[in-house]
Protein backbone atom coordinates (compact mmCIF):
# COMPACT_ATOMS: atom_id res chain seq x y z
CA UNK A 1 0.00 0.00 0.00
CA UNK A 2 2.80 2.45 0.85
CA UNK A 3 4.50 1.83 -2.51
CA UNK A 4 1.29 2.77 -4.33
CA UNK A 5 0.80 5.76 -2.05
CA UNK A 6 4.20 7.11 -3.02
CA UNK A 7 3.52 6.64 -6.72
CA UNK A 8 -0.10 7.78 -7.20
CA UNK A 9 0.74 10.54 -9.74
CA UNK A 10 3.05 8.26 -11.74
CA UNK A 11 0.56 5.38 -11.75
CA UNK A 12 -2.19 7.79 -12.75
CA UNK A 13 -0.07 8.94 -15.69
CA UNK A 14 0.73 5.39 -16.80
CA UNK A 15 -2.89 4.19 -16.57
CA UNK A 16 -4.11 7.31 -18.37
CA UNK A 17 -1.54 6.96 -21.16
CA UNK A 18 -2.40 3.29 -21.71
CA UNK A 19 -6.16 3.98 -21.67
CA UNK A 20 -5.95 6.91 -24.08
CA UNK A 21 -3.56 5.03 -26.37
CA UNK A 22 -6.08 2.19 -26.60
CA UNK A 23 -8.99 4.57 -27.28
CA UNK A 24 -7.17 6.67 -29.88
CA UNK A 25 -5.62 3.55 -31.39
CA UNK A 26 -9.06 2.02 -31.86
CA UNK A 27 -10.73 5.23 -33.12
CA UNK A 28 -7.91 6.02 -35.55
CA UNK A 29 -7.74 2.46 -36.86
CA UNK A 30 -4.27 1.70 -35.48
CA UNK A 31 -5.49 -1.54 -33.91
CA UNK A 32 -5.92 -4.07 -36.73
CA UNK A 33 -9.39 -5.67 -36.63
CA UNK A 34 -7.90 -9.05 -37.43
CA UNK A 35 -6.36 -9.27 -33.93
CA UNK A 36 -9.85 -9.58 -32.42
CA UNK A 37 -12.34 -12.42 -32.87
CA UNK A 38 -15.40 -11.18 -34.69
CA UNK A 39 -18.72 -11.46 -32.88
CA UNK A 40 -21.93 -12.05 -34.84
CA UNK A 41 -23.39 -8.91 -36.45
CA UNK A 42 -26.32 -8.98 -34.04
CA UNK A 43 -23.92 -8.79 -31.08
CA UNK A 44 -21.97 -5.92 -32.66
CA UNK A 45 -25.23 -4.09 -33.39
CA UNK A 46 -26.33 -4.52 -29.75
CA UNK A 47 -23.18 -2.93 -28.28
CA UNK A 48 -24.27 0.74 -28.63
CA UNK A 49 -27.59 -0.06 -26.94
CA UNK A 50 -25.86 -2.01 -24.18
CA UNK A 51 -23.37 0.81 -23.70
CA UNK A 52 -26.20 3.33 -23.35
CA UNK A 53 -27.71 1.13 -20.63
CA UNK A 54 -24.30 0.80 -18.96
CA UNK A 55 -23.91 4.60 -19.08
CA UNK A 56 -27.32 5.08 -17.46
CA UNK A 57 -26.46 2.53 -14.78
CA UNK A 58 -23.13 4.31 -14.17
CA UNK A 59 -24.93 7.65 -13.75
CA UNK A 60 -27.26 6.14 -11.15
CA UNK A 61 -24.34 4.44 -9.41
CA UNK A 62 -22.24 7.63 -9.26
CA UNK A 63 -25.14 9.75 -7.99
CA UNK A 64 -25.98 7.11 -5.37
CA UNK A 65 -22.31 6.95 -4.38
CA UNK A 66 -22.20 10.72 -3.95
CA UNK A 67 -25.28 10.57 -1.75
CA UNK A 68 -23.74 7.76 0.31
CA UNK A 69 -20.60 9.75 1.12
CA UNK A 70 -22.65 12.86 1.91
CA UNK A 71 -24.58 10.72 4.40
CA UNK A 72 -21.35 9.42 5.91
CA UNK A 73 -21.72 5.87 4.56
CA UNK A 74 -18.13 5.35 3.46
CA UNK A 75 -18.44 1.61 2.78
CA UNK A 76 -21.48 2.05 0.53
CA UNK A 77 -19.73 4.93 -1.24
CA UNK A 78 -16.69 2.74 -1.85
CA UNK A 79 -18.75 -0.15 -3.22
CA UNK A 80 -20.73 2.15 -5.51
CA UNK A 81 -17.69 3.94 -6.88
CA UNK A 82 -15.90 0.65 -7.52
CA UNK A 83 -19.08 -0.52 -9.28
CA UNK A 84 -19.15 2.70 -11.34
CA UNK A 85 -15.55 2.08 -12.34
CA UNK A 86 -16.45 -1.50 -13.28
CA UNK A 87 -19.30 -0.20 -15.43
CA UNK A 88 -16.91 2.27 -17.05
CA UNK A 89 -14.49 -0.60 -17.72
CA UNK A 90 -17.24 -2.71 -19.30
CA UNK A 91 -18.36 0.26 -21.40
CA UNK A 92 -14.80 0.91 -22.54
CA UNK A 93 -14.09 -2.71 -23.48
CA UNK A 94 -17.31 -2.96 -25.50
CA UNK A 95 -16.72 0.42 -27.13
CA UNK A 96 -13.13 -0.41 -28.08
CA UNK A 97 -14.13 -3.81 -29.40
CA UNK A 98 -16.88 -2.42 -31.63
CA UNK A 99 -14.97 0.62 -32.83
CA UNK A 100 -11.95 -1.53 -33.71
CA UNK A 101 -14.08 -3.87 -35.80
CA UNK A 102 -16.62 -1.41 -37.24
CA UNK A 103 -15.08 2.04 -37.01
CA UNK A 104 -16.99 5.13 -35.89
CA UNK A 105 -20.70 5.41 -36.61
CA UNK A 106 -21.60 8.06 -39.17
CA UNK A 107 -24.23 10.64 -38.24
CA UNK A 108 -27.27 10.13 -40.45
CA UNK A 109 -29.19 13.28 -39.56
CA UNK A 110 -29.34 16.64 -41.32
CA UNK A 111 -26.02 18.37 -41.99
CA UNK A 112 -27.04 21.46 -40.00
CA UNK A 113 -27.84 19.32 -36.93
CA UNK A 114 -24.56 17.49 -37.38
CA UNK A 115 -22.55 20.71 -37.58
CA UNK A 116 -24.27 22.76 -34.90
CA UNK A 117 -25.56 20.17 -32.42
CA UNK A 118 -24.12 16.67 -32.84
CA UNK A 119 -20.44 17.49 -33.40
CA UNK A 120 -20.24 20.08 -30.58
CA UNK A 121 -21.96 17.64 -28.18
CA UNK A 122 -19.63 14.85 -29.29
CA UNK A 123 -16.59 17.09 -28.86
CA UNK A 124 -17.57 18.09 -25.31
CA UNK A 125 -18.36 14.44 -24.47
CA UNK A 126 -14.95 13.33 -25.74
CA UNK A 127 -13.09 16.18 -24.04
CA UNK A 128 -14.76 15.50 -20.69
CA UNK A 129 -14.06 11.78 -21.01
CA UNK A 130 -10.39 12.49 -21.72
CA UNK A 131 -10.13 14.82 -18.71
CA UNK A 132 -12.15 12.46 -16.46
CA UNK A 133 -9.92 9.44 -17.06
CA UNK A 134 -6.88 10.66 -15.10
CA UNK A 135 -9.11 12.17 -12.39
CA UNK A 136 -10.91 8.86 -11.91
CA UNK A 137 -7.65 6.91 -11.78
CA UNK A 138 -6.11 9.42 -9.37
CA UNK A 139 -9.13 9.32 -7.06
CA UNK A 140 -9.32 5.53 -7.06
CA UNK A 141 -5.59 5.13 -6.50
CA UNK A 142 -5.76 7.47 -3.51
CA UNK A 143 -8.70 5.49 -2.11
CA UNK A 144 -6.84 2.22 -2.63
CA UNK A 145 -3.59 3.37 -1.08
CA UNK A 146 -4.74 5.24 2.04
CA UNK A 147 -6.73 4.05 5.03
CA UNK A 148 -10.24 5.52 5.09
CA UNK A 149 -9.42 7.64 8.14
CA UNK A 150 -6.58 9.38 6.24
CA UNK A 151 -8.48 10.07 2.98
CA UNK A 152 -9.99 13.40 4.09
CA UNK A 153 -6.45 14.76 4.49
CA UNK A 154 -5.56 13.83 0.89
CA UNK A 155 -6.73 15.21 -2.44
CA UNK A 156 -9.31 12.40 -2.62
CA UNK A 157 -12.36 14.51 -1.63
CA UNK A 158 -11.58 17.36 -4.06
CA UNK A 159 -10.43 15.07 -6.89
CA UNK A 160 -13.42 12.81 -6.29
CA UNK A 161 -15.89 15.68 -6.66
CA UNK A 162 -14.24 16.78 -9.88
CA UNK A 163 -13.98 13.24 -11.24
CA UNK A 164 -17.62 12.48 -10.41
CA UNK A 165 -18.83 15.70 -12.03
CA UNK A 166 -16.83 15.13 -15.20
CA UNK A 167 -17.90 11.50 -15.31
CA UNK A 168 -21.58 12.34 -14.87
CA UNK A 169 -21.62 14.96 -17.61
CA UNK A 170 -19.59 12.78 -19.97
CA UNK A 171 -21.84 9.75 -19.44
CA UNK A 172 -24.94 11.96 -19.87
CA UNK A 173 -23.66 13.48 -23.10
CA UNK A 174 -22.73 9.99 -24.29
CA UNK A 175 -26.37 8.99 -23.92
CA UNK A 176 -27.44 12.08 -25.89
CA UNK A 177 -24.94 11.21 -28.64
CA UNK A 178 -26.26 7.62 -28.63
CA UNK A 179 -29.84 8.88 -28.96
CA UNK A 180 -28.90 11.11 -31.88
CA UNK A 181 -27.10 8.26 -33.65
CA UNK A 182 -29.44 5.35 -32.98
CA UNK A 183 -32.85 6.62 -31.90
CA UNK A 184 -33.53 9.94 -33.59
CA UNK A 185 -31.82 9.43 -36.96
Automatic annotation (TrEMBL):
Gene Ontology CC: one annotated term: membrane
One GO BP annotation of this record: respiratory electron transport chain
InterPro entries, per the entry: Cyt_c_oxidase_su3_a-hlx, DUF420
Keyword NAD assigned: no
One Pfam family named in its UniProt record: DUF420
Entry keyword annotation includes Membrane: yes
GO molecular function: cytochrome-c oxidase activity
Coiled coil: none
Transmembrane region(s): 12-31, 43-68, 80-97, 117-141, 162-184
Keyword terms: Membrane, Transmembrane, Transmembrane helix
PANTHER family: DUF420 DOMAIN-CONTAINING PROTEIN, HYPOTHETICAL MEMBRANE SPANNING PROTEIN
Protein name according to UniProt: DUF420 domain-containing protein
Amino acid sequence: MNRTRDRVPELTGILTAVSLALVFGAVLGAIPPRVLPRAPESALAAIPHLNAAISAAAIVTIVTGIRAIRNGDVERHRRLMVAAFGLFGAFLILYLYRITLEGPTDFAGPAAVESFVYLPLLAVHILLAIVAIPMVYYTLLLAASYPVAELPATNHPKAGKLAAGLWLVSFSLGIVVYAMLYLVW
